[in-house]
Write a structure and sequence with these properties.
The chain is of the alpha+beta class. A hairpin with a 3-residue loop joins strand 3 and strand 4. The chain has two domains: about 80 residues, no CATH class; about 70 residues. The longest helix is centred in the middle third of the chain and has 32 residues.
Length: about 180
């Protein structure tokens, strides 16, 4: 159980911290630094896992959509089903190949963004099936994070977040930042 004096100390600390953040904002100081950097091999490995998952979703979708016309209906409609299935297969396969090519180009050309700053807010949004966690860094840059990262940072902590927004948005790394 939390003692009354500990709670008062915490509330006083939070009030002081919020006033320091507001003072920095009103003086025109930025609460974060945003730069770009090339992707590292570790970053590419994280992105490749996601890319392989997306490709598998495309393949499953193609198989389900193009396999549906082969369900046994009537013999007279069978030729139409085959033609439709082959056409859908070719269309969806070509779209998948184009998408994968665009993803590969983005992986090679789009740099990651590195945000260093102070956590100014935390948000947790509970949905029906999952909970979404966000840390707001500096001047209102909300970044989605895992539950573990969400609980390990408090308002006022220094944080360095690496994310990539070339094809979707992926948080690659979240770590403590000491301001240097």
């Amino acid at each position: 159980m939390v003692k009354r004096s500990e709670l008062d100390t915490f509330n006083l600390f939070m009030k002081d911290l919020e006033s320091k953040i507001e003072a920095a904002r009103s003086s025109g100081k930025s609460l974060h630094i945003e730069t770009t950097a090339p992707l590292t091999d570790e970053d590419r490995a994280i992105l490749n896992k996601s890319r392989h998952g997306q490709i598998m979703m495309y393949v499953v979708f193609i198989v389900l959509v193009t396999g549906f016309p082969f369900l046994p209906f009537k013999d007279a409609v069978f030729e139409y089903q085959v033609a439709t299935s082959v056409g859908l297969f070719m269309l969806l396969t070509s779209l998948t190949i184009m998408t994968v090519a665009k993803m590969r180009i983005a992986y090679r050309t789009v740099p990651k963004t590195v945000v260093q700053g102070i956590v100014t807010d935390k948000a947790m949004e509970k949905g029906q099936k999952e909970t979404r966690y966000e840390l707001t860094v500096g001047d209102s840059i909300p970044i989605p994070v895992t539950a573990g990262k969400y609980h390990s940072y408090q308002v006022g902590d220094g944080v360095e977040i690496h994310y990539w927004a070339g094809w979707g948005s992926y948080v690659l790394c979240v770590k403590r930042w000491d301001g240097s």
